[in-house]
Amino acid sequence: MDVRLDDLDRKILRELQRDAGQSLDEIAKEVGSSKTPVWNRIRKMREAGIVGAQTVLLDAESLGFDACFFVLIRTSEHEKDWQDRFLAALKARPEVQEAHRLAGDIDYILKVRVKNARAYDTFYQALIAEVKIHNVTALLSMEELKFTTALPL
Amino acid sequence: MDVRLDDLDRKILRELQRDAGQSLDEIAKEVGSSKTPVWNRIRKMREAGIVGAQTVLLDAESLGFDACFFVLIRTSEHEKDWQDRFLAALKARPEVQEAHRLAGDIDYILKVRVKNARAYDTFYQALIAEVKIHNVTALLSMEELKFTTALPL
DNA sequence: ACGGAAGCGGAAAAACGTTCTATCTCGACT
DNA sequence: AGTCGAGATAGAACGTTTTTCCGCTTCCGT
């Protein structure tokens, strides 16, 4: 079920990333093809899991989300059970927008988006009450200089 | 130009975040309204800049982007001119998916998505050749535990 | 050169976005 | 309390887009 992508596929993906709202005709014109092949290729890439969710990006600030933290986590616990509970806690909390397990010194990094610093503290207290964490450093974002979900194809 | 959001607006935004591909009828049924108000409200929120770009999320791994780094940057330069050049460099590089200016000890954090560790090194060398940076720490992601662009409304 | 599979462009059918209009709701004012 | 007006709503109407279908071409293996 794997799909080998050619140049046309990549052009289509580029267009979809740029604006998923445009019509097939527009995409077809842009990539130099016609409607049917564009449609078939998108369908295949969807089935293959290359193309995932279609979404809109909302402006966090105008919705009152004024604080964004990057949270660096060190833990002394490395058993499976602890990991499972930690992961479940992260997935259950919508303010956690991103979570990565890292190589090296620091074990995890989270990106947490909340309404204000107090909301972050509430989140933080709830998290450390739920799972044991050795060391936490929070980095507060003052300004989002760049944000994109697009991959450079 | 500001829009005060009511409960219906938030329901619509929640649906759009969940799946921006569904039809107006589906959204209307889900939020308990009809097509026209849903359409008008989305249009207004678009104009107000609350609703931004519509995009698809692609699977980075199946497209060969196997490495993701978080880059912590300290600099000794804090003049306007340096900042401008640094910002321009970040915006020009598509592998930089996210960049924040931070409060405190560390000045900037970047999220950099590349095909492999070598590609990261290429990026890193190019960046430090372009702008003077005092200290850099790269955190390598082993596993993306969670990713969402959705805000918790 | 031939056969077959895969991909293509264009046409038809179904679904959808967008506009319009009449109706409804709700708050302000007398 | 009653009335008026602004703004929002449901539903129908219209034009566009998606999705399916089909015949044609291209390309590869034999």
TrEMBL record, chains A, B:
MF terms in GO: sequence-specific DNA binding
HTH asnC-type domain location: 5-66
One protein family per Pfam: AsnC_trans_reg
GO biological process, alphabetically ordered: regulation of DNA-templated transcription; response to amino acid
UniProt entry tagged with the keyword Transcription: yes
Annotated Gene Ontology cellular component terms: cytosol
Record key words, sorted: DNA-binding, Transcription, Transcription regulation
PANTHER family named in the record: DNA-BINDING TRANSCRIPTIONAL ACTIVATOR DECR, LEUCINE-RESPONSIVE REGULATORY PROTEIN
Name listed for the protein in its UniProt record: DNA-binding transcriptional activator DecR
Originating organism: Palleronia abyssalis
Gene of this entry: decR_1
